[in-house]
């Protein structure tokens, strides 16, 4: 396979030669044609499902899991962490076991799934910080439970979101970190001391900072400032245009710098669904015409996102003025570093996982033309 495009950092026209699923050469070329941009496949560490399928659903099947995973190729996503949110132990165990079976069944799925993200159930009980997570399934930190879930996943849990005020959090965090599970602070109402203790124990990330929070906070101190001002914490943000105002995104970006931000779409299981009201676990959620996913009956309280990482990149560039290359790093290199995995890279000798696209900067959109994974065209055509 030979692909001609403009390299996403330099904008230099190049020809990428693919052999045996790997990048064999990247050669600069002269071209008078208008070529698309080429960049490494995206990696999102927080995706809850797609098309009505939730990875944390006790009714998840291998077929539904594979269908939900494959759908992400159309958005330039070649790697992700299926994310399971607060639920009963039985539902979580089933979700992780099904993901393991899906990865064992299909080699492409095993390559796409770099790990799993457990978001909860060790989070705040308060309305606001708890977000859309079910109150009756929130519980104290339980290392034994995580070990059993890890076994069900085939050792795929690589990231866990918790609230530092959850009983037993510091010791629990240390156990996780010592066993290869990165810890993120999220869905929390923790005070300054509790956040400091979590960082001292090994927490390194903030989950969708600025969301999963009270509608009104004291001006200072508060748990957003405490995390934003902590240099040991990288901040993941949902830059989809709905979750955070542009001024907040800019403030987070300028505070943390390009290396301290991780972009995630936090796509819910309703991403890709038609607008309307949908039932899940006895609760009603609504996909609005704008693409927002909310708790049904109002338009303010969100329940995950309805768009994917490509939208977050384009919106990040528009909101902050950062370069396309820097935004791309926030959705590849940065999340891979924080979760200790290897994502796609546009380099000789690396797996051929890349995406061809056009960047419509005037309208803050990316148009994915083609996605290549492991040297195979998995979306689009030449």
Word description of this protein:
By secondary structure, the chain is of the alpha/beta class. The chain has a single domain, classed as Metal-dependent hydrolases (TIM Barrel, Alpha-Beta Barrel), CATH 3.20.20.140. Helix content is 27%, strand content 26%. The protein has an eight-stranded parallel sheet, sandwiched between helices. Strands 3-2-1-4-18-19-20 form a seven-stranded mixed sheet, with helices on one face. A three-stranded antiparallel sheet has the order 15-16-17, with no helix packed on it. β16 (283-287) and β17 form a beta hairpin. The N and C termini lie close together (11 Å). The relative contact order is 0.16. The mean pLDDT is 96. It is an enzyme of class 3 (hydrolase). InterPro entries: Amidohydro-rel, GlcNAc_6-P_deAcase, Metal-dep_hydrolase_composite, Metal_Hydrolase. Keywords: Carbohydrate metabolism, Hydrolase, Metal-binding.
Please report the number of helical segments.
11
The CATH fourth-level homologous superfamily = Metal-dependent hydrolases
Helix content: 25-40%
Q: Indicate the proportion of strand residues.
A: 25-35%
């Amino acid at each position: 396979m030979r692909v001609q495009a403009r390299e996403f950092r330099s904008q230099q026209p190049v020809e990428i030669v693919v052999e045996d699923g790997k990048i064999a050469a990247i050669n600069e070329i002269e071209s008078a044609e208008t070529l698309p941009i080429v960049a490494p496949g995206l990696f999102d560490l927080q995706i809850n499902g797609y098309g009505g399928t939730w990875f944390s659903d006790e009714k998840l099947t291998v077929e539904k899991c594979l269908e939900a995973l494959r759908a992400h190729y159309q958005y330039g996503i070649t790697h992700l962490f299926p994310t399971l949110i607060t639920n009963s132990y039985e539902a979580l165990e089933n979700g992780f076991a099904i993901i393991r079976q899906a990865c064992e069944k299909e080699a492409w799925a095993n390559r796409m799934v770099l790990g799993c993200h457990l978001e909860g159930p060790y989070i705040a009980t308060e309305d606001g910080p708890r977000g859309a997570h079910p109150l009756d399934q929130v519980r104290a930190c339980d290392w034994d439970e995580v070990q059993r879930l890890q076994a069900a996943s085939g050792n795929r849990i690589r990231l866990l979101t918790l609230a530092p005020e959850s009983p037993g959090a510091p010791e629990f965090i240390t156990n996780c970190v010592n066993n290869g599970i990165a810890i993120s602070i999220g869905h929390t109402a923790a005070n300054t001391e509790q956040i400091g203790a979590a960082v001292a124990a090994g927490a390194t990330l903030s989950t969708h900072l600025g969301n999963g929070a009270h509608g009104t906070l004291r001006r200072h101190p508060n748990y957003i400032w405490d995390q934003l001002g902590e240099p040991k914490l990288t901040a993941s943000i949902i830059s989809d245009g709905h979750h955070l105002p542009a001024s907040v995104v800019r403030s987070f970006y300028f505070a943390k710098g390009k290396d301290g931000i991780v972009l995630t779409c936090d796509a819910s299981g309703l991403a890709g669904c038609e607008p309307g009201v949908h039932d899940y676990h006895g609760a009603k959620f609504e996909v609005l015409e704008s693409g927002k996913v909310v708790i049904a009956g109002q338009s303010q309280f969100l329940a995950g996102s309805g768009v994917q990482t490509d939208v977050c990149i384009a919106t990040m560039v528009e909101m902050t003025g950062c370069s396309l290359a820097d935004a791309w790093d926030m959705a590849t290199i940065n999340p891979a570093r924080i979760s200790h995995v290897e994502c796609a890279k546009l380099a000789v000798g690396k797996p051929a996982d890349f995406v061809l696209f056009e960047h419509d900067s005037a309208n803050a959109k990316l148009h994915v033309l083609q996605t290549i994974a492991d040297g195979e065209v998995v979306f689009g055509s030449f």
